[in-house]
Amino acid sequence: MNKPYVYITRLLPEEIVKPYREHLNIGMWQEEEKPVSKEKLEEESQRADGLLTMLTDPMDEDLLKKTDRLKIIANMAVGYDNIDVDTASKFEIKVTNTPDVLTDTTADLTFGLLMAVARRMVEANQYIKDDRWGPWSPLLLAGTDVHHKTIGIFGMGRIGEAVARRARGFDMDILYHNRSRKKETEHELGAEYVEFEELLEKSDYVVCMAPLTDETHHIFDRDAFKKMKKEAIFINASRGATMNEEDLYKALEAGEIAGTGLDVFEQEPIRKNHPLLELNQVVCLPHIGSATVETRHKMMRLCLDNLVKYFEGDKPLTSVN
């Protein structure tokens, strides 16, 4: 019996992939520094039984309706807004993602980003590299405290809850807004559910951990930033399009909020002439929320496990549709 053909759209370590070759006929993009080309993605989508894709691979309606053999897409991310899931379901194509395995890793990065902005760590590092360190002064690179402050988490999913646990360790008051209240989370973490506007008005740190939906698209706009405290810091480690970057820049430039830390952007990758990079009170990271060796390996294996289980007639571990 022929093994199902699966195409992987990035070059993954062979030590991860090799054990799965016993079950799958695996093809893989071979250029380490470049993403799969649009032409190659379309070609492989039409000949593969399964795909292992990245968040940056657009699996839209036009591409999906050309596929004859494709049965499953294993997306190596928690999010799957790169995939037209409705169209995939229409053509009976299974979609899976990689939740849970990256929860703590992404929460670590999110809280680290919050601290980096609050304590001006990146700016201070550059200060030394520029050979500017001179005599001590009372307010040299003085930031703002994290402990005993109020954190407002927009989107209390698994990662939001993990961020809240870290905030407890800093004796922070925890506010949150979510599509639905989570009573168990409130009891466990001492978090308080508030409406979105109240979260903006009361939080010292506003942290966006919400998925990108029609409702959350550009929810952080100029009006939202104006409702925040002038001392507030905005952190986004979920999806770039939940914020309007132009409005964020204007709010920072006008002093309507104090700073921001971003791991995501509306259009990625950004370049060195991006307006937000001009501002000292901004810390930008290249979408590395889950980027530890341990977690990325777990994500790869989960995708491959989902593919094997599907083709062996079992239910995938983490189905989206």
TrEMBL record:
Transmembrane segments: none
Domain D-isomer specific 2-hydroxyacid dehydrogenase catalytic: 7-321
Keywords, alphabetical: Oxidoreductase
Family matches, as InterPro entries: D-isomer_2-hydroxyacid_DH, D-isomer_2_OHA_DH_cat_dom, D-isomer_DH_CS1, D-isomer_DH_NAD-bd, NAD(P)-bd_dom_sf
Keyword Coiled coil included in the entry's annotation: no
CDD domains the record matches: GDH
Ranges where the D-isomer specific 2-hydroxyacid dehydrogenase NAD-binding domain occurs: 111-289
GO cellular component, one term: cytosol
Protein's UniProt name: D-glycerate dehydrogenase
Organism per entry: Halobacillus mangrovi
